[in-house]
Design brief:
The protein is an alpha/beta fold and 302 residues long. It has 13 helices and seven strands. The chain is globular.
Length: 302
């Protein structure tokens, strides 16, 4: 049976520029790879990348979005975010609307798509819940407008306003790998776990963690550190921790049919710090991809 190929992208704001740089190098060596992918999965900035690829938008245009010029437009002007989001989402919304028509729905994608978000509830639905926008089957998200799904998945708390009462999918699946596997198997009973192959492209692994004594930290310290490199420790923990957990699951589920490339980034970089885009691109352009190429050649495209 033909393999079911998943290509997954992490969340991470401007750090998606590192993912794009790796993807460019991969396609230089395997120009037909995107045509062979069955499902594009992505959270937050990864939702943007996955959606563009699933719609068939040229990589050249997607690459342009991850430049300092465009990122500066999205992450400006900056506001003090103690009692309101740091940014409005006007520029991001306009950018998405340039590529996704107002009536373009999740069901309209050329390829399978999987976008995590988190719904905060409403007057009728009083409980909150994870939501996975996808076209793997006819489901409650099929008729959701794709642009709204991307904005919902990208609505990072404290950075951007919630969108239609949805927030960033990174709070539950910043690396939407294991959950996309389970959803695929559920939607396509003809496949079993051995038929799934998955390539996960991260946004960089930063070694800088929370340093110092935390036993007396309360709400303020965990939530808001305006003068430190890691300004939102709890949010950073949520997103990094979820990615690590998904990685553990995938290694257990798929064994050799799974590969994750997530280069070491020596500095901790906030998701809105667009000045670091050239630095991130340099890492993506120089990191060793030999094992990744071997995986693609011997397993992913075999």
């Amino acid at each position: 049976m033909k393999k079911f190929r998943i290509l997954s992208f992490d969340g991470g704001g401007i750090k998606g520029s590192l993912s794009i740089e790796i993807l460019i190098r991969v396609l230089d060596n395997f120009p037909n790879l995107l045509n062979e992918v069955d499902l594009f999965a992505g959270t937050s900035t990864g939702a943007i990348i996955a959606s563009f690829l699933a719609k068939g938008i040229p990589l050249k245009e997607l690459n342009y979005l991850y430049t300092t010029k465009i990122a500066k437009e999205i992450f400006s002007p900056s506001r003090f975010n103690l009692i309101r989001p740091k940014f409005n989402n006007k520029a991001l919304k306009e950018l998405i609307n340039n590529y996704f028509e107002d009536d373009f729905k999740i069901s309209n994608f050329k390829k399978f798509i999987f976008i995590p978000s988190f719904y905060l509830g409403d007057k009728e639905k009083k409980s909150w819940e994870p939501v996975f926008f996808n076209n793997l089957s006819i489901n409650s998200t099929s008729n959701f407008i794709a642009g709204d799904a991307i904005l919902a998945s990208s609505a990072a708390p404290t950075y951007f306003p919630s969108h239609k009462n949805y927030i960033d999918g990174g709070v539950i699946a910043n690396s939407p790998t294991a959950i996309s596997i389970l959803s695929s198997l559920s939607s396509f009973p003809k496949y079993n776990i051995d038929d799934i192959v998955l390539l996960s492209i991260g946004t960089g692994n930063s070694p800088e963690k929370i340093i110092g004594k935390t036993e007396n930290w309360g709400i303020l310290q965990w939530s808001f550190h305006p003068f430190s490199k890691m300004k939102s420790p709890l949010l950073a923990l949520l997103m990094d921790g979820m990615s690590d957990l998904e990685d553990m699951y995938c290694k257990e589920f798929l064994k050799n049919n799974y590969f994750r490339i997530n280069p070491r980034v020596p500095k901790f970089i906030e998701l809105d710090n667009y000045k670091f885009i050239p630095y991130l691109r340099a890492i993506g352009n120089t990191c060793d991809l030999s094992e990744l190429y071997r995986f693609i050649e011997t397993i992913y495209l075999k």
